[in-house]
Write a structure and sequence with these properties.
about 260 residues, alpha/beta, Rossmann fold
Protein backbone atom coordinates (compact mmCIF):
# COMPACT_ATOMS: atom_id res chain seq x y z
CA UNK A 1 0.00 0.00 0.00
CA UNK A 2 2.89 2.37 0.69
CA UNK A 3 4.98 4.01 -2.03
CA UNK A 4 8.25 5.56 -0.78
CA UNK A 5 8.46 7.84 -3.83
CA UNK A 6 5.00 9.34 -3.25
CA UNK A 7 5.61 9.71 0.46
CA UNK A 8 8.91 11.55 -0.06
CA UNK A 9 7.52 14.14 -2.50
CA UNK A 10 7.19 16.61 0.37
CA UNK A 11 10.05 15.29 2.50
CA UNK A 12 11.07 18.72 3.79
CA UNK A 13 7.56 19.50 5.10
CA UNK A 14 7.07 15.99 6.48
CA UNK A 15 10.41 16.02 8.32
CA UNK A 16 9.76 19.17 10.32
CA UNK A 17 7.37 17.58 12.89
CA UNK A 18 9.90 14.78 13.44
CA UNK A 19 12.60 17.34 14.19
CA UNK A 20 10.29 19.30 16.49
CA UNK A 21 9.33 16.11 18.36
CA UNK A 22 12.93 14.98 18.75
CA UNK A 23 13.95 18.40 20.10
CA UNK A 24 11.83 17.75 23.21
CA UNK A 25 13.36 14.33 23.95
CA UNK A 26 15.87 14.96 26.72
CA UNK A 27 17.62 11.55 26.74
CA UNK A 28 21.38 12.09 26.83
CA UNK A 29 23.00 8.70 26.22
CA UNK A 30 20.36 6.07 25.51
CA UNK A 31 21.65 2.60 24.68
CA UNK A 32 18.59 1.28 22.80
CA UNK A 33 16.44 3.45 20.52
CA UNK A 34 13.50 2.23 18.43
CA UNK A 35 11.72 4.11 15.65
CA UNK A 36 8.26 2.60 15.14
CA UNK A 37 6.78 3.09 11.68
CA UNK A 38 10.10 4.31 10.29
CA UNK A 39 8.91 4.48 6.68
CA UNK A 40 11.77 4.85 4.17
CA UNK A 41 14.24 5.49 7.01
CA UNK A 42 15.36 8.94 5.92
CA UNK A 43 14.47 10.41 9.31
CA UNK A 44 15.47 7.38 11.38
CA UNK A 45 19.12 7.75 10.34
CA UNK A 46 19.22 11.07 12.21
CA UNK A 47 18.64 9.16 15.45
CA UNK A 48 21.97 7.42 14.93
CA UNK A 49 23.59 10.81 14.34
CA UNK A 50 22.16 12.24 17.56
CA UNK A 51 22.97 9.16 19.66
CA UNK A 52 26.01 7.55 18.01
CA UNK A 53 26.53 5.21 20.95
CA UNK A 54 23.03 3.75 20.76
CA UNK A 55 21.71 0.70 18.97
CA UNK A 56 19.03 2.16 16.70
CA UNK A 57 16.35 0.02 15.08
CA UNK A 58 13.72 1.14 12.58
CA UNK A 59 10.54 -0.94 12.23
CA UNK A 60 7.78 -0.70 9.64
CA UNK A 61 5.03 -3.00 8.37
CA UNK A 62 5.65 -2.04 4.72
CA UNK A 63 8.14 -4.25 2.88
CA UNK A 64 8.52 -1.49 0.28
CA UNK A 65 9.45 1.07 2.93
CA UNK A 66 11.94 -1.25 4.64
CA UNK A 67 13.55 -2.10 1.29
CA UNK A 68 14.06 1.62 0.68
CA UNK A 69 15.43 2.12 4.21
CA UNK A 70 17.92 -0.73 3.88
CA UNK A 71 19.31 0.98 0.80
CA UNK A 72 20.51 3.90 2.91
CA UNK A 73 24.09 4.11 4.12
CA UNK A 74 23.47 3.95 7.86
CA UNK A 75 24.30 1.89 10.97
CA UNK A 76 20.56 1.65 11.72
CA UNK A 77 19.01 -1.81 11.56
CA UNK A 78 15.73 -1.89 9.65
CA UNK A 79 13.19 -4.71 10.03
CA UNK A 80 9.59 -5.46 9.04
CA UNK A 81 7.26 -5.46 12.04
CA UNK A 82 3.67 -4.59 12.91
CA UNK A 83 3.53 -1.71 15.37
CA UNK A 84 0.36 -3.07 16.98
CA UNK A 85 2.17 -6.27 18.00
CA UNK A 86 5.36 -4.62 19.24
CA UNK A 87 6.33 -4.21 22.88
CA UNK A 88 9.33 -2.42 24.41
CA UNK A 89 12.10 -4.71 25.63
CA UNK A 90 13.30 -4.28 29.23
CA UNK A 91 16.38 -2.35 28.00
CA UNK A 92 14.55 0.04 25.66
CA UNK A 93 15.47 3.65 26.44
CA UNK A 94 13.74 5.72 23.74
CA UNK A 95 10.73 4.95 21.54
CA UNK A 96 9.96 7.30 18.65
CA UNK A 97 6.67 6.95 16.77
CA UNK A 98 6.20 9.65 14.15
CA UNK A 99 2.91 9.97 12.22
CA UNK A 100 2.03 6.29 12.66
CA UNK A 101 -0.50 5.75 15.43
CA UNK A 102 -3.36 7.38 13.50
CA UNK A 103 -3.32 4.27 11.29
CA UNK A 104 -3.72 1.88 14.25
CA UNK A 105 -7.30 1.21 15.41
CA UNK A 106 -7.59 1.53 19.17
CA UNK A 107 -4.12 3.00 19.48
CA UNK A 108 -4.80 4.65 22.89
CA UNK A 109 -4.84 1.16 24.42
CA UNK A 110 -1.58 0.41 22.63
CA UNK A 111 0.03 3.52 24.10
CA UNK A 112 -1.05 2.46 27.58
CA UNK A 113 0.40 -1.00 27.04
CA UNK A 114 3.74 0.47 26.06
CA UNK A 115 3.70 2.90 28.98
CA UNK A 116 3.04 0.05 31.41
CA UNK A 117 6.06 -1.87 30.09
CA UNK A 118 8.59 0.95 29.82
CA UNK A 119 11.33 0.90 32.40
CA UNK A 120 11.82 3.94 34.68
CA UNK A 121 13.58 6.74 32.82
CA UNK A 122 12.57 5.49 29.37
CA UNK A 123 10.96 7.92 26.93
CA UNK A 124 8.00 7.46 24.58
CA UNK A 125 7.72 10.25 22.01
CA UNK A 126 5.05 10.31 19.32
CA UNK A 127 3.34 12.65 16.90
CA UNK A 128 0.05 12.20 15.04
CA UNK A 129 -1.76 14.30 12.47
CA UNK A 130 -4.70 16.18 13.95
CA UNK A 131 -6.20 17.29 10.64
CA UNK A 132 -8.94 14.69 10.10
CA UNK A 133 -11.59 17.40 9.92
CA UNK A 134 -9.51 19.55 7.56
CA UNK A 135 -10.77 20.40 4.06
CA UNK A 136 -8.41 17.80 2.57
CA UNK A 137 -10.09 14.96 4.47
CA UNK A 138 -13.55 16.41 3.90
CA UNK A 139 -12.80 16.25 0.18
CA UNK A 140 -11.75 12.59 0.39
CA UNK A 141 -14.94 11.72 2.29
CA UNK A 142 -17.07 13.59 -0.26
CA UNK A 143 -15.61 11.69 -3.21
CA UNK A 144 -15.62 8.38 -1.32
CA UNK A 145 -19.39 8.66 -0.89
CA UNK A 146 -19.90 8.09 -4.63
CA UNK A 147 -22.03 4.92 -5.15
CA UNK A 148 -19.54 3.67 -7.77
CA UNK A 149 -17.04 2.65 -5.12
CA UNK A 150 -18.51 3.50 -1.71
CA UNK A 151 -19.21 -0.10 -0.69
CA UNK A 152 -15.63 -1.21 -1.34
CA UNK A 153 -13.80 1.62 0.37
CA UNK A 154 -12.63 1.61 3.98
CA UNK A 155 -14.18 4.10 6.35
CA UNK A 156 -12.62 7.54 5.92
CA UNK A 157 -11.84 8.65 9.44
CA UNK A 158 -13.01 11.89 11.04
CA UNK A 159 -11.87 13.97 13.98
CA UNK A 160 -12.16 11.08 16.45
CA UNK A 161 -9.25 9.24 14.80
CA UNK A 162 -6.81 10.75 17.33
CA UNK A 163 -6.99 12.41 20.74
CA UNK A 164 -6.06 15.96 21.62
CA UNK A 165 -2.95 16.67 23.75
CA UNK A 166 -4.93 16.59 26.99
CA UNK A 167 -6.43 13.22 26.08
CA UNK A 168 -3.06 11.60 25.47
CA UNK A 169 -1.61 13.21 28.59
CA UNK A 170 -4.40 11.76 30.72
CA UNK A 171 -3.67 8.26 29.41
CA UNK A 172 0.03 8.44 30.18
CA UNK A 173 -0.25 10.11 33.58
CA UNK A 174 -2.10 7.01 34.79
CA UNK A 175 1.06 4.99 34.17
CA UNK A 176 3.45 7.16 36.11
CA UNK A 177 4.77 9.24 33.23
CA UNK A 178 5.91 12.84 33.21
CA UNK A 179 4.17 14.24 30.13
CA UNK A 180 4.94 17.06 27.73
CA UNK A 181 2.05 17.40 25.25
CA UNK A 182 1.23 20.12 22.74
CA UNK A 183 -0.16 20.81 19.29
CA UNK A 184 1.13 22.83 16.35
CA UNK A 185 -0.55 23.92 13.13
CA UNK A 186 1.97 24.20 10.31
CA UNK A 187 1.20 26.34 7.29
CA UNK A 188 2.78 24.64 4.29
CA UNK A 189 3.02 26.92 1.27
CA UNK A 190 3.02 24.38 -1.55
CA UNK A 191 4.13 25.49 -5.04
CA UNK A 192 1.57 24.58 -7.68
CA UNK A 193 3.02 22.13 -10.18
CA UNK A 194 6.11 21.35 -8.09
CA UNK A 195 5.31 17.74 -7.20
CA UNK A 196 3.50 16.92 -10.45
CA UNK A 197 2.75 19.51 -13.15
CA UNK A 198 -0.84 18.32 -13.78
CA UNK A 199 -1.87 17.71 -10.17
CA UNK A 200 -3.06 20.04 -7.45
CA UNK A 201 -0.31 20.06 -4.77
CA UNK A 202 -2.63 18.92 -1.97
CA UNK A 203 -3.67 15.98 -4.17
CA UNK A 204 -0.01 15.04 -4.53
CA UNK A 205 0.33 15.32 -0.73
CA UNK A 206 -2.63 13.10 0.20
CA UNK A 207 -1.67 10.50 -2.41
CA UNK A 208 1.32 9.74 -0.22
CA UNK A 209 -0.69 9.38 2.99
CA UNK A 210 -4.43 9.82 3.59
CA UNK A 211 -5.56 8.55 0.18
CA UNK A 212 -3.41 5.40 0.23
CA UNK A 213 -6.18 3.11 1.60
CA UNK A 214 -8.48 4.31 -1.19
CA UNK A 215 -5.84 3.64 -3.82
CA UNK A 216 -5.30 0.14 -2.44
CA UNK A 217 -9.02 -0.67 -2.67
CA UNK A 218 -9.58 0.47 -6.28
CA UNK A 219 -8.29 -0.79 -9.61
CA UNK A 220 -6.31 1.50 -11.90
CA UNK A 221 -9.33 2.74 -13.87
CA UNK A 222 -11.40 3.43 -10.77
CA UNK A 223 -8.50 5.16 -9.06
CA UNK A 224 -7.98 7.43 -12.07
CA UNK A 225 -11.64 8.51 -11.86
CA UNK A 226 -11.49 8.93 -8.08
CA UNK A 227 -8.25 10.89 -8.34
CA UNK A 228 -9.67 13.27 -10.94
CA UNK A 229 -12.73 14.04 -8.81
CA UNK A 230 -10.61 14.41 -5.69
CA UNK A 231 -8.34 16.86 -7.46
CA UNK A 232 -11.38 18.94 -8.45
CA UNK A 233 -12.67 18.95 -4.87
CA UNK A 234 -9.28 19.94 -3.48
CA UNK A 235 -8.91 22.75 -6.01
CA UNK A 236 -12.19 24.21 -4.70
CA UNK A 237 -11.04 24.01 -1.09
CA UNK A 238 -7.42 25.07 -1.61
CA UNK A 239 -7.22 27.81 -4.27
CA UNK A 240 -3.91 28.60 -5.91
CA UNK A 241 -2.80 32.14 -5.16
CA UNK A 242 0.24 33.54 -6.96
CA UNK A 243 1.50 30.03 -7.67
CA UNK A 244 1.15 28.79 -4.07
CA UNK A 245 -1.39 26.82 -2.08
CA UNK A 246 -1.72 27.50 1.66
CA UNK A 247 -2.10 24.07 3.29
CA UNK A 248 -2.69 24.21 7.05
CA UNK A 249 -1.81 21.00 8.90
CA UNK A 250 -2.46 20.46 12.61
CA UNK A 251 -0.33 17.92 14.50
CA UNK A 252 -0.40 16.60 18.08
CA UNK A 253 2.84 15.85 19.96
CA UNK A 254 3.55 13.90 23.14
CA UNK A 255 6.80 13.17 24.96
CA UNK A 256 6.31 10.94 28.02
CA UNK A 257 9.08 9.92 30.41
CA UNK A 258 8.45 7.00 32.76
CA UNK A 259 9.04 8.22 36.31
CA UNK A 260 11.13 6.30 38.84
CA UNK A 261 9.15 4.07 41.14
Amino acid sequence: MWDPTSYLRFSDHRSRPFVDLLARVAADEPAVVVDLGCGPGTLTVHLADRWPGATVTGLDSSAEMIAAARGLSSPVRFDIADVSGWNPAPDTDVVICNAVLQWVPGHPALIQRWAARLRPGAVLAFQVPGNFDAPSHQAIRTVAADPRWRARLPAIRGGDAVLDPAGYAALLLRYGCVVDAWETTYLHLLPAGDAEPTAHPVLSWVEGTAARPVRAALDDTEWAAFRQRLGEQLALRYPIDDGLVAFAFRRVFVVATKADG
